[in-house]
């Protein structure tokens, strides 16, 4: 190409040189397109822009939805009904395409998807999907929901000839038993046995049914026990109501908290309230709440069923009355001990299974048990002689045997020993009264002998000193045999004569027995 050709081609390239059009720092030669405000605010323009965005985002969906518009080239359009059906079909297709776009937009890449299948309007004969391709969302059947077993007709069998199936069929019965498990209590987890096509035999189903009923009854009993029992360091609503009444009446000022727990009771500390004309309320009180759970009393009925003071009122058929009787028994025993001058808590009032007594201690601090306190040799010797004297008073003046006397039921306060927990105390005429006394003597003798008290008697000598009986036996076996013989003689006398009269031979003063 010569210079003439270049000069001739230059005017076609533009007014400036060619490098100026490609330079980024050159002045842009753009022409502004003028448009009115009405065109910008028009709804048609907004719809077109939205449609362009959707086509760019979902090109495959739009391409599938857009089909050839129905024309009337080979269709008779003389009928208005046919035209209406054609227009309705085209509207339905557009509506379904819009629903598919909405599904795709909402679901995105989520593993959990939603479907608008129930809102689509495509006619079944005009469906785009093939007959072989079946989507479970297009059906009303959920493959993850197991079918319940079909019921057997009233005649008891289905089928004919060799294909007959009776209601006793193993497979049919197994599936029915699996379906019946849904009727168990909600607390009994049965799982998805129907979905796994589980077949339970009658034996297994009956065992599960019995276990479900047992668990339901046990759950009901536990709930009732929780509502109506006194648990560890807690009280049931009825007991709480009794304590509220005591505080509201002014008998108690306030209940501070729990100070001791035992096998059959819980002890709370409280401050005394206003004294009445016939009742003196101590400044500090101990509230003994007997547990209304019967587990601890199953093996302790021997202390009360053979006691002549409560024998006629004892009944195993009403165990809650036994617990109240247990509290009443401790009140009567404490009253006897208090009248005899034995150091023990003073009874304030008894309400059902709640016993209010004076507090042995000071400033909410209970007196220590004899097993927990460290005493000097002089105090140890003083405590031994005091306990010996109290055991004799308890047996001869109060006509009682402690039946659970040990260092755990003796408190050390104000330089002397105090006896507590006498709910199990019985009279010597009890069929096992002397056995209980011998056990108390063994506990006391062993404790003080280990404590270094040289004057401490052994259990046989202590028994004779307390009871006044003169049982001479060289060993413990013969000694207990004579005790059992005396108890048998006394029991036979009571059964023959119908009154409580001692037949024990004694060198000292005989025990006092009430007619």
From TrEMBL:
Chemical reaction(s) catalysed: L-threonyl-[protein] + ATP = O-phospho-L-threonyl-[protein] + ADP + H(+); L-seryl-[protein] + ATP = O-phospho-L-seryl-[protein] + ADP + H(+)
Entry's Gene Ontology BP terms: defense response to virus; innate immune response; ribosome biogenesis
Co-factor requirement: Mg(2+)
CDD domains for this protein: RIO3_euk (cd05146)
Highest taxon, organism lineage: Eukaryota
Keyword Nucleotide-binding among UniProt keywords: yes
Sequence ranges of Basic and acidic residues compositional bias: 137-148
Keyword vocabulary terms for this entry: Antiviral defense, ATP-binding, Cytoplasm, Immunity, Innate immunity, Kinase, Magnesium, Metal-binding, Nucleotide-binding, Phosphoprotein, Ribosome biogenesis, Serine/threonine-protein kinase, Transferase
Chain ranges of the RIO kinase domain: 224-468
Record GO terms (molecular function): ATP binding; metal ion binding; protein serine/threonine kinase activity
GO cellular component terms attached to this protein's record: cytoplasm
Classification via Pfam families: RIO1
Entry keyword Kinase: yes
Compartments, record wording: Cytoplasm
EC top class named in words: transferase
Sequence segments annotated as region (Disordered): 124-161, 496-515
Family of this protein: Belongs to the protein kinase superfamily. RIO-type Ser/Thr kinase family.
Assembly and binders: Interacts with CASP10. Interacts with IRF3; RIOK3 probably mediates the interaction of TBK1 with IRF3. Associated with 40S pre-ribosomal particles.
Protein's name in the database: Serine/threonine-protein kinase RIO3
Organism: Erythrocercus mccallii
Gene that encodes it: Riok3
């Amino acid at each position: 190409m010569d210079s003439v050709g270049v000069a001739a081609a230059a005017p076609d390239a533009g007014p400036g040189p060619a490098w100026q059009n490609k330079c980024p720092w050159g002045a842009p030669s753009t022409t502004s397109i003028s448009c009115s405000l009405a065109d910008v605010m028009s709804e048609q323009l907004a719809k077109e822009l939205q449609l362009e965005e959707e086509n760019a985002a979902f090109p495959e969906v739009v391409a599938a939805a857009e089909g050839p518009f129905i024309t009337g080239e080979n269709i008779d359009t003389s009928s208005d009904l046919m035209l209406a059906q054609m227009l309705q079909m085209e509207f339905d297709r557009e509506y379904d395409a819009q629903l598919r776009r909405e599904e795709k937009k909402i679901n995105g890449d989520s593993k959990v998807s939603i479907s608008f299948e129930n809102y689509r309007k495509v006619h079944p004969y005009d469906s785009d999907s093939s007959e072989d391709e079946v989507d479970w969302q297009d059906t009303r059947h959920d493959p993850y929901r197991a079918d319940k077993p079909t019921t057997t007709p009233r005649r008891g069998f289905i089928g004919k000839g060799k294909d007959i199936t009776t209601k006793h069929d193993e497979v049919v019965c197994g599936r029915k038993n699996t379906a019946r498990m849904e009727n168990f209590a909600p607390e009994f987890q049965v799982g998805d046995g129907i979905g796994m096509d589980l077949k339970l035999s009658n034996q297994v189903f009956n065992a599960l049914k019995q276990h479900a009923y047992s668990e339901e009854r046990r759950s009901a009993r536990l709930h009732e026990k929780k509502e109506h029992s006194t648990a560890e360091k807690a009280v049931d609503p009825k007991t709480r109501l009794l304590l509220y009444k005591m505080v509201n009446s002014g008998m108690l000022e306030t209940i501070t908290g729990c100070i001791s727990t035992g096998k059959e009771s819980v002890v709370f500390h409280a401050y005394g309230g206003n004294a009445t004309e016939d009742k003196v309320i101590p400044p500090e009180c101990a509230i003994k709440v007997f547990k209304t759970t019967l587990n601890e009393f199953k093996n302790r009925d021997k202390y009360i069923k053979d006691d002549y003071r409560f024998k006629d009122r004892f009944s195993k058929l009403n165990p809650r009355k036994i617990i109240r009787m247990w509290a009443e028994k401790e009140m009567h025993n404490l009253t006897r001990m208090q009248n005899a001058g034995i150091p023990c808590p003073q009874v304030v009032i008894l309400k059902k299974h709640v016993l209010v007594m004076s507090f042995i201690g000071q400033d909410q601090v209970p007196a220590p048990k004899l097993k927990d306190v460290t005493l000097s040799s002089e105090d140890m010797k003083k405590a031994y002689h005091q306990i010996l004297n109290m055991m004799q008073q308890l047996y001869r003046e109060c006509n009682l045997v402690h039946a659970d006397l040990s260092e755990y039921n003796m408190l050390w306060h104000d330089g002397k020993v105090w006896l507590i927990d006498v709910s199990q105390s019985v009279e010597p005429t009890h069929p096992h009264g002397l056995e209980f006394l011998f056990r108390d003597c063994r506990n006391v003798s062993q404790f003080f002998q280990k404590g270094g008290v040289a004057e401490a008697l052994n259990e046989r000598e202590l028994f004779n000193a307390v009871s006044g009986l003169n049982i001479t036996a060289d060993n413990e076996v013969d000694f207990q045999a004579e005790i059992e013989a005396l108890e048998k003689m006394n029991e036979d006398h009571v059964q023959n004569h119908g009154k409580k009269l001692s037949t024990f031979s004694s060198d000292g003063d005989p025990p006092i027995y009430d007619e």
